[in-house]
Amino acid sequence: MGFVVQVASEDALQPLISGQSHFSVTMAWVLAAKPPQPVTVLCSSDLTDKVRQACPSLPAASVIGIPGRMALGAMGDGLSVRAWEGSAEDGYLPAGPLATAAAAPERVVEKPWGREIWWAVTDRYLGKLIEVRSGHSLSLQYHRRKLETLWVVAGYGRFQIGEDEVAAGPGYTVTLKPGTVHRISAQVDLQLIEVSSPEGDDVVRLEDRYGRT
Fold first, then answer.
1. CA–CA distance, 199 with 122 (Å, rounded to integer)
2. What residues contact 61, with CB distance under 8 A and at least 6 apart?
3. Strand partners, 80
4. DSSP secondary structure, 161-206, as one string
């Protein structure tokens, strides 16, 4: 059992902002979950070299090219993540694994500033992909019990942490202890991964441009 990331077109590898791509963001989403099972990338044969260049940390054997005639029937547009049971032999993926349902997030929470995709919900930790639209901000807030670590994977913004304000772009990480007052603002559409303790509803808002309390 593992994950297969399906790359259906070269467009999915095109850069978005400063080298970030749909592919790199999705790989970050998968790898941040630290799955105990392997991650395999499935693409048409003519894209294997480009996919390996896009994610050099993956073993070459984890990138599997299949003939175009098979890929056309197996994959939709763009890029997707699926649960996968099975193995590949001689660079060909058996038909069976492709029949499994696409992996779905535990929960999608729409927000006035964007949305949260809850991809891991357990009694010990919580994982989210947070998307903040350009020009929008989360509330000025703190958490009574929740400990969280944030990792920016795409876009640019500013983080207010206590009395300090810092610029945040791809690769920026910060850990916020309970009681730390903070706010996230997006200057360019911002995507970040949050891994935290499980108290998902532990939010105390001090200021909010959308009128929430």
1. 10
2. none
3. 6
4. ETTEEEEE-TT-EEEE-TT--EEEEEEEEEEEEEEE-S-TT--EEE
pTM above 0.70, yes or no: no
Contact 81, 22 (CB under 8 A): no
Contact predicate 141/206, CB 8 Å: yes
Domain range list for the chain: 2-99, 107-207
CA separation for the pair 127, 120 (Å, rounded): 5
Q: What is the pLDDT of residues 136-192, one digit of tens each?
A: 999 999 999 999 999 998 888 999 999 999 999 888 999 999 999 999 999 988 999
- The two tokens of residue 176 are 């916020």
The whole-angstrom separation of Cα 13 and Cα 22 is 6
| CA pair distance 77, 56, nearest whole angstrom | 23
Query: Which of 123, 140, 114 is closest to 196 using CA atoms?
Result: 123
Q: What's the fold here for domain 107-207?
A: Jelly Rolls (2.60.120)
Torsion of CA 39, 44, 48, 52, to 10 degrees: -40
- In contact, 127 and 193? CB cutoff 8 Å: yes
Average pLDDT, integer, range 121-146: 94
Q: Are the C-beta atoms of 182 and 142 separated by less than 8 Å?
A: yes
